[in-house]
Design goal:
Length: 189
């Protein structure tokens, strides 16, 4: 992979007006074969556009204080190893548990996360993600039931991130940075 220091450093600033709050608004899962990406040829980690043709949306409580995205990088003898982990807490145990169980057999899952701060990440775009899950009904009538989904992946490349959610198209529908859905013809540049 090419390294372009001027591109890298020009993107780093300390703009205090940027939102630094965490949290995930939406989770989209699909298969690697249904994801197309266009990256900048001069800086291979700059996303120009992405399209996920076939996907499912995981609806979760965005205020659950449990759903998260985490990525760590370790370098051993100049070889990067990146561990990605995404945890999504789905409310209630229902028919989705069977569907999630079927999805957990795959190891070529990609995950698109729309973050509360207006950014988006695409994980699993190189090697795919594995899925594990657990379901819990709680011990008492006041305990909430949930399905906990964990997506994990190991790769030499991190998740690709963008601060412009409009670069990510979902099937024939796509969402712009204001979360307005559109099915207008998409013009690729």
């Amino acid at each position: 992979m090419a390294f372009n220091c001027s591109v890298l450093l020009s993107d780093i600033d300390s703009n205090c007006s940027n939102s630094l709050t965490g949290g995930i608004k939406k989770v989209y899962l699909g298969l690697k074969e249904n994801l197309t990406l266009t990256l900048d040829t001069s800086a291979e980690t700059v996303l120009l556009n992405a399209n996920l043709e076939d996907f499912v949306t995981f609806e979760h409580n965005p205020k659950d204080k449990a759903t998260y995205f985490s990525e760590t990088k370790q370098t051993n003898l100049s070889v990067p190893v990146i561990e990605t982990e995404i945890f999504v807490k789905l409310p209630a145990i229902d028919s989705r548990a069977s569907k999630i169980e079927q999805m957990s057999y795959r190891s070529d899952i990609v995950c698109v996360l729309m973050h509360n701060n207006g950014s988006a990440t695409i994980s699993g775009w190189i090697r795919g993600l594995d899925m594990n899950y657990s379901a819990s009904s709680g011990a008492s009538i006041t305990d909430a039931s949930s399905i906990n989904v964990t997506l994990k992946g190991t790769s030499w490349e991190s998740s690709i991130a963008t601060s412009d959610q409009s670069l990510i198209k979902l099937g024939t529908l796509w969402v712009n940075h204001n979360e307005i859905w559109s099915n207008n013809n998409i013009i690729w540049k």
